[in-house]
Design goal:
This protein has 2 domains: 1-30; 32-104, no CATH class. It has 108 residues and is mainly alpha-helical. Helix 3 runs antiparallel to helix 4. The termini are far apart. The mean pLDDT is 87. The chain has helices at residues 4-29, 35-53, 57-78, 83-104.
Length: 108
Amino acid sequence: MLDDFFIRALIAGIGVAIVTGPLGCFVVWRRLSYFGDTLAHSALLGVTLAYSMEFNIAFSVFIISSLIALTLIQLQKRTNLPGDALLGLLAHSSLAIGLVVIGFFIIY
């Protein structure tokens, strides 16, 4: 009745929902709901650095995202700012740096 692909897709979708549901609750509980957004913005910086220095893009995104996460941990220990404010600061600063780096490589 159902194709084999659809059954596997249904099983994968249910598995992802089972895993990400509690993880999403934990993220909201820890008030880190903008953490994924921050890492996505920092990924642009990783892609631009990888493109400019001819590195592996996935490796560069991993390194930059890890550095942003470690920076967040250090800033949470040193300042009294809420986590959402720090995440917004890191997200937009890494996005701005990534856009500046892209601007240097645009050929007219």
